[in-house]
C-alpha cells in the first residue's frame, strides 16, 4: 500500500468538506462554533472528535456533549468492526483521523453515531427520523469503550421530539442534520424524479427559529454538522435546494445568524 506524507497533518479537513467559523448564536462576543457541510455523513465523526478534544482541552466540558440528529434513516449500524481502531483514534492527527473516517468507518454512512458513542466523544443520542419498521433502542443503553452507558432516544413525531428535548438538562450538544430527512418518500437511484422532497413550507415549519426546540438547541450548540447525501435526496439539485432553504432559515446571505 502506498504511503503519503501529510503536508499539514494537524490542520486539515476531509476532502470536500466546507467549514465555517461562526459566532455562537447566543454568545456572539465571547464564543465561536464551527458549522461544516459535507457529502458523506460518516465524516461527522471527524468533527465530533475534533470538537470534543478542543472542548476538553479548554476545560469547557466535563462530559461528552449530547448528540441531536435529524435524519431520514437511523444511522445506528453496529460499530463492532471498527472498535479495535476506535480505541486508538483519539491519538490520531487530523489527517489520519480523516483517513480513518474515509477508509474504516462504514461506507454505507450509517455507523458513525455508534462509533462516536463507543469512542465516548458524544453522550446520549436524540434522533428525529422518518425510518420505521426497525426496533428503537430506547430501552437498550449502548456501552462504550470505557464502560459508560449512552442512552438512545428515537422519535418520528416532531412535537414529541421537541417536548423531550425541552425536558433535557444538558448544557452542551452537537447538532447534526442529514438533508435526506426532508425527503417525503425514497425513490429509485436510477430514477431521480421518483424522489419527492418536502415543500418549502414544510421544511420551514420544522427548521424555524421560532420553534422552542430550535432555540433550545442553538443555546447549547458546540458544533453543527450537515450531510448533503445527494444520493438519498434524489440528486444534487434536490439536495442543494433543501440545503438552501435550511441555510436561509438560520443565516442571512452574508452568513450572519438570523437569531
Report on this structure.
The protein is an alpha/beta fold. The chain has a single domain (18-250), classed as 3-Layer(aba) Sandwich (Rossmann fold), CATH 3.40.50. 31% of the residues lie in helices and 22% in strands. It is built from eight helices and eleven strands. It has helices at residues 44-57, 83-89, 94-103, 112-119, 158-166, 200-206, 212-220, 236-250, and strands at residues 18-24, 27-38, 66-71, 125-129, 142-143, 149-150, 152-155, 173-178, 183-185, 196-197, 221-227. It has a seven-stranded mixed beta sheet with strand order 1-2-11-8-3-4-7, with helices on both faces. It has a two-stranded antiparallel ribbon with strand order 5-6. The chain is globular. It starts with 17 loop residues before the first strand and ends in a 9-residue tail after the last helix. The model has no long low-confidence stretch (mean pLDDT 93).
Number of strands: 11
Instruction: Give the number of helices.
Output: 8
- Distance from N terminus to C terminus (CA atoms, Å) equals 50 Å
CATH topology name, in short, is Rossmann fold
Shape: globular
> Percent of residues in beta strands?
15-25%
Radius of gyration: 18 Å
User: Helix/strand-derived class?
Assistant: alpha/beta
In spatial order, strands of the major sheet run 1-2-11-8-3-4-7
Which runs of at least 5 residues are low in confidence (pLDDT < 50)? Answer: none
CATH architecture: 3-Layer(aba) Sandwich
Number of domains: 1
Q: How would a crystallographer describe the biggest sheet?
A: 7 strands, mixed
Order of helices and strands: EEHEHHHEEEEHEEEHHEH
CATH class: Alpha Beta
Mean pLDDT: 93
State the helical fraction.
Answer: 25-40%
